[in-house]
């Protein structure tokens, strides 16, 4: 669904502070409403992850800090801002969207005014499932690259509460599929600490580190390996064309 808003008025607002980057386990936050047009709202800061990098957005609710009925948040998107090019030796860093205004789509137009304080509450079970699958996505990504070296292209990814999926420009054989699973499990078994390194150029990007693996990212992840490695992990592959396929990793069986 498209977002229809007054571009000039939204651009006049300061860039939204992405609190979820620094505190991914925070489930509740007080913020100030800066802009409201029908069911679209911009706040000074947010814990709602805005859809990007293949990761779906958070959902949840907002309520006036003075009390009242919670209003569901059903979609969250980055708008405006600009792209930043970052160069780091040995790392392929994609263009980064910075200084964006994060627009929240609400289930209906709430009885609020700019300047009002609100309490944000994310759907934590859903967010936590996304965090776990985003972390697993990095292990699967690393395993695919380790197995194929430079011989494969990753055309896209989707990360949600049920799975992490990569679209590949190669049809996977059963041997390929088994080898990627083995590589993924081997990486998890190495039991390195999970770490996040900040990027000096912006707080919209950081580097996810696991042993010698370093991946630029802006998503939400778990902090301890045990949050994914102690669980049952399932894999799934599907051919999507003559020379295309998808491979998925999940914490529950996929049909």
UniProtKB/TrEMBL annotation:
<dbReference type="GO" id="GO:0002161">
    <property type="term" value="F:aminoacyl-tRNA deacylase activity"/>
</dbReference>
<dbReference type="GO" id="GO:0046872">
    <property type="term" value="F:metal ion binding"/>
</dbReference>
<protein>
    <submittedName>
        <fullName>Alanyl-tRNA synthetase</fullName>
        <ecNumber>6.1.1.7</ecNumber>
    </submittedName>
</protein>
<keyword id="KW-0030">Aminoacyl-tRNA synthetase</keyword>
<dbReference type="InterPro" id="IPR009000">
    <property type="entry name" value="Transl_B-barrel_sf"/>
</dbReference>
<dbReference type="InterPro" id="IPR051335">
    <property type="entry name" value="Alanyl-tRNA_Editing_Enzymes"/>
</dbReference>
<dbReference type="GO" id="GO:0004813">
    <property type="term" value="F:alanine-tRNA ligase activity"/>
</dbReference>
<dbReference type="InterPro" id="IPR018163">
    <property type="entry name" value="Thr/Ala-tRNA-synth_IIc_edit"/>
</dbReference>
<keyword id="KW-0862">Zinc</keyword>
<dbReference type="GO" id="GO:0000166">
    <property type="term" value="F:nucleotide binding"/>
</dbReference>
<keyword id="KW-0479">Metal-binding</keyword>
<keyword id="KW-0436">Ligase</keyword>
């Amino acid at each position: 669904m498209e977002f229809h808003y007054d571009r000039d008025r939204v651009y006049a607002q300061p860039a939204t502070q992405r609190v979820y980057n620094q505190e991914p386990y925070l489930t509740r936050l007080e913020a100030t409403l800066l802009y409201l047009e029908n069911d679209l709202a911009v706040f000074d800061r947010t814990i709602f992850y805005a859809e990007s990098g293949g990761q779906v957005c958070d959902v949840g609710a907002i309520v006036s800090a003075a009390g009242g009925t919670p209003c569901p948040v059903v979609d969250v998107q980055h708008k405006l801002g600009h792209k930043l090019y970052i160069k780091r030796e040995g790392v392929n860093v994609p263009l980064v969207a910075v200084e964006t205004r994060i627009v929240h789509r609400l289930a209906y137009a709430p009885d609020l005014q700019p300047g009002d304080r609100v309490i944000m509450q994310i759907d934590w079970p859903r967010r936590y499932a996304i965090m776990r699958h985003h972390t697993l996505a990095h292990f699967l990504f690393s395993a695919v690259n380790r197995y194929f070296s430079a011989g494969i292209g990753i055309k896209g990814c989707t990360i949600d509460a049920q799975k992490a999926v990569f679209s590949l420009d190669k049809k996977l054989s059963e041997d390929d599929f088994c080898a990627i699973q083995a590589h993924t499990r081997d990486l998890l078994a190495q039991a390195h600490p999970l770490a996040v390194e900040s990027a000096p150029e912006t707080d919209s990007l950081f580097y996810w580190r696991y042993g010698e693996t370093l991946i630029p990212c802006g998503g939400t992840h778990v902090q301890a390996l045990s949050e994914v490695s102690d669980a049952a992990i399932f894999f799934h592959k599907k051919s999507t064309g003559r020379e295309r396929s998808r491979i998925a990793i999940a914490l529950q069986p996929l049909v």
